[in-house]
Amino acid sequence: CGRGFYKSSSQDLQCSRCPTHSFSDKEGSSRCECEDGYYRAPSDPPYVACTRPPSAPQNLIFNINQTTVSLEWSPPADNGGRNDVTYRILCKRCSWEQGECVPCGSNIGYMPQQTGLEDNYVTVMDLLAHANYTFEVEAVNGVSDLSRSQRLFAAVSITTGQA
Fold first, then answer.
1. pLDDT band, very low/low/confident/very high, at 127 (cuts 50, 70, 90)
2. CA separation, residue 125 to residues 64, 71, 91, 121, 141 (Å)
3. What range(s) does the Fibronectin type-III domain occupy (predicted)?
């Protein structure tokens, strides 16, 4: 096979053109490499286009009821070329002094769950009263964890009321 083509198996009768966002720059390639910033998930076959992580979720809104926060958002503008987008929530508790934030820990409840969310809403329960929190909502897909670029997320900071 020439440049820009590949043959994944010796049983293949003919060469295939490299999928979108991939290339082969030497003759006789058995697979095509992804362009910079694009990835192929381990479960993706060689004939599938290389894709990238999704952009951040949009229009993040929240509703506080004492020590419970409901978060809702819109899907990312760019799904990275994949249809396996889910969401994960990162919770940080922040001190009153600017910039001191630590992960919330395991005593916080998430309904329906914290990671692998297919819907674009979550309720976070059992927060401390009169505390500052920052929530990051990240859209992820099958290649997000392969990317070395900065995480893209929507964030909101809130202060809880009394318990």
1. very high
2. 10, 11, 11, 13, 26
3. 53-163
- pLDDT value, residue 76: 98
Average pLDDT, the chain: 94
Inter-CA distances, 46 with 18, 137, 141, 161, Å: 9, 31, 18, 53
pLDDT of residue 17: 95
Query: What mean pLDDT do residues 71-98 have?
Result: 94
Kindly report each contact of residues 103-107 with a partner whose C-beta sits within 8 Å and lies 24 or more positions away, as own/partner.
Answer: 104/133
Q: How distant, in Å, are the alpha carbons of 50, 61, 84, 88 from that of 41?
A: 8, 31, 11, 19
Instruction: Count the neighbouring beta carbons within 10 Å of the beta carbon of residue 38.
Output: 20
